[in-house]
Amino acid sequence: MNDKPSNQTEPQIPPQETPAQIFGMGDVESHKTKQQQQTKILWGIFSLLLVLVLGVVLLLPRLISAPGSATVAPVIIPVERSTPQDAFSPFEEAQLLREREQAQEVLALILDFQEQLEEINVEIWAGEAYLESLAIAAEGDVAYREQDFLGSQEIYQRSLLSLQSLETLSLEVLNTSIDLGYIAIESGLPAAAKEEFTTALLINDESETALVGLERAQLLPEVLALLEQGDTWRENNNLESALDFYTQASVVDPAHTRATNAVAQTNIDILDRDFLIFMSNGFSSIQDNSPGNALVSFNQALTLKPESSDALSAITQAETMITSRDLTVQLNAAQGHVAGERWQEALEAFNNAIAIDANLVAALNGSERAQTRANLDVYLNNIVNAPLRLADEEVYQQSINVYNEALTLVENNSRLYDQLVALRGYLDKARVPITVTLTSDGLTNVTIYRVSELGSFASQTLNLNPGTYTAVGVRSGYRDVRSEFIVPFSGEEPVVTVICNEPV
After folding, report:
1. What is the pLDDT of residues 182-202, one digit of tens each?
2. What is the dihedral of CA 469, 470, 471, 476, to 10 degrees?
3. Do β-strands 459-464 and 434-439 pair in parallel, antiparallel, or remain unpaired?
4. Distance between CA 213 and CA 110 in Å, rounded?
């Protein structure tokens, strides 16, 4: 069926078929170009014909006279009718027509893919492969013109597959170009980045990712310049200035990885630097025996790094030193007060030490002893400064007991020794009576509280131990009188007068 006689003629083509159905791939391409040129030529011919028609209608009747009937004779052209012996049979023509239609269907698909690929600028990103695909289609044109429609269909099919692969490749080229563009940005290659994103936009001019990438590529030189200045300051150990330029770069392109990483790392470096400075200052203060200053520095370091075990350990060390120092200060103060027998001050110092360390044995024992001696000191001072209290028997007996207990604690040339000597002197005299002379008017009844009622008399003597006494006088019709007197330890014999002489 596909074998053609050498002298066969091309089957008749229906008049309504388009050029794309009549010609092959190459003819269609040239037809597109020629059609535009022919349109211009046809307009020129139409204009010329219009002028000629007007000339024929208006001028020719005047120049030519109408011919007579005798001079006009019909021309008969004989028609030669023949039937070529090598003409196709109707079945063969039908088969050939179907093969041609199938080839044209593939060709129509080729044209559709060609248009689509040209819209995405295939000649730029895959020019060689695209030309090869068109060359294959041109081979199909040759077979088509030779009416080898099956062969042309097969060749067109290969061209179609090649164009389809280019369409599939376009998505890969798009994605690859975008990826390479962003890699070029991070690699600091603005020209390469622009080229890749431009290629991507040739394929898809609405790609948001490619548009953003191209904008970033255009900003990249400014970003790189700022990063370079930041690096220079960093090399000079000026981290704050470096951070300023890195921050500017990240503002220009917030998505630039190196810029954002540089900002983050520089902040970390500044933090580490300041942390080390505070820690170093703290340890210097430790060496200078200034744990208070050290604690301030270590706490500043801990503020920067709240979970730093080094800062926490250093703080513990400084606090231990402060505790030890404060304990030493309080214990030394307490011992000084003990040596000076300032027992109340010693007690306060020992208690301060206990407040610092509640388990400190020296402070606990010292506080207990200081409390005992402070109580003794207060008692002895009260008796020595007011010995007349010994007139009270209870006070007298208690003072004897205190005196005897204190003898076990006394040391020569001490405050306690002087207190006990003074107390002993008062104790020795406390029960040695002193003669007291009482005078009255013989009309007043006299009573000595806690001693006796003496009645009325003009003069009377009593032997009283040193102390403070109260004499009361009572007389009918007269106001009572009260007189307090002291029997001193000095041995002086007092004279007391009790007389009611104020009438009521």
Report:
1. 999 999 999 999 999 998 988
2. -170
3. antiparallel
4. 34
Which amino acid, residue 483? S
CB-CB contact of 338 with 331 (8 Å):
no
> What pTM was computed for the model?
0.56
Q: pLDDT per residue over 280-316, tens digit each? A: 999 999 999 999 999 999 999 999 999 999 999 999 9
Residue 18: pLDDT above 50? Answer: no
Task: Report d(CA 187, CA 113) in Å as an integer.
Answer: 37
**Could you tell me how far CA 24 lies from the centroid of its own chain?**
69
User: In terms of DSSP bridges, do strands 445-448 and 452-456 run parallel, antiparallel, or are they unpaired?
Assistant: antiparallel
Per DSSP, helices labelled H in 187-207 are: 190-203
Q: What are the chain's domains?
A: 19-43+91-205 (no CATH), 334-428 (no CATH), 432-504 (2.60.40.1120)
209 neighbors 178 (Cβ within 8 angstroms): yes
User: Mean pLDDT, the chain, as a whole number?
Assistant: 83
Residue 496's H or E segment, with its range, is: strand 495-497
